[in-house]
Give the backbone structure.
Amino acid sequence: MLVAAATVACSPPEKTGAESAGGDSGQLSLGVVGGTKDMLYPYAPQQTISEEVLWQNTLDQLTMYAPDGSVKYALAESMTPNKKLDVWTVKLRPGVKLHSGKTFGADDVIFSVRSLLTEKGYPFAANLDFVDPDGQKKVDDLTVEFHLKRPFGPFAAAWAYSSFKMIGASSTKDKVDGTGPFTVKSFSPGAQAVLERYDAYWGTKPGFGTLNVRFFQDQTAITNALRGGQIDVAPSVPFSDAKTLEAGGVKVLKSDSMNVLSLDMRTDIAPFKDVRVREAMKLIVDREQIASNAFGGFAKPANDYNGVSSSCPAPDVAQRAQDIAKAKQLLAEAGQSDLKVELVTDGAFPGMMELAQLFAQQASEAGVTVTVRKMDVATLLNKWLEWPFIINITSSPMINAITDHLLPKGGNNAAHFDDPEFNKIAADLFASSDADQQCGDIQKLQKIQWERGGSIIAVTSQDLTPYTTRVRGLQPDVLGRSAYLYGGVSVG
């Protein structure tokens, strides 16, 4: 995905019959793995799939990723830089109403930006480290000037990252004022949330009145709820369940996606501090077997770098294949012939447990003992970025993967990857708005990640969205949001 700001789509939101007529007053039930520490306040010290569902439906962003992965304007109407790319003028969409009834404007943007950049414990502020918390100036009610710490070319794409929701200036952690398509009627973390359609919403409205979000402990419980008719749709199910659900009358929407499960090794501590150990672990993997067995054939081999969905050409590196003999040799050279490691996961996403277990089997061929430890979401997140070996997930284009997963301060840099050459090239990429230079820099970054990165990226998977026949209008989405993007979706 090219990250040049000029690629942002600026067409107005589509109007639908549901939008103009108020739509069906029915209900839709969504099932998702949830946590007892989930919050409605978006600048939280974690980001779970269940929180993303809530934020996506109650809050909006300045820009966002469209279902095809392109950047489009949302609350912003335009973003214009100066020649140095260090001052950006953001024009806001007029007539947007907050759930409180107030008009969304420049004061709300300035409040949101300062809040997310200064909130204690909010890990994703590092993704916007080029933004000065006090550098936003109100020009008028619908115009904000961003005075940056340094030039930044892919400005619009940076704000499309899903964590950067905008809230009203009167918001508190206990009561958030948003602009999204639903308001919150009730919320019990780990149990249920009830959302009601906001009929003053500025964009394409859902064609139903109430969204019931039910939180489950694991993927198996979601599968059972679908079979039993307790829920209408889920963001995902185990890949092994897809065909049996279809045979039972549940539909499954299949989307090409940017979903990447990575086995992240902490590069700052032993044994993974040694690049030979990291390469050995990558050579252990039989990617074809993982695609076929762990993902039920709904995946294809990847090559240990992010950005496989990028529109830029692939880097000039060989496709890594399983080589047990070479892996053993590297481990012996590193003094780790009898390596024993623990791999942790919460199993919150399809394929996580299957990937972990199959990798452990493959590792044993090289004399490596991998103990898989499954834990609940809250326990895993309580020590986020502390685990030596963990299954992580990326569901975003390369521009966000770099800042979030691959730079030292990234909120999801579970590998603690901190490579001086990589960091320098990333800085050059961000300082440019030239698409050709961006692609060249992305290829260099991918090659470094392939050579010495801390992530084993075995496959890229499709996104499977199971839903009952009463749900109509779900759309394919490369970011895996098909189950909870409801513009134009109806039930009945």
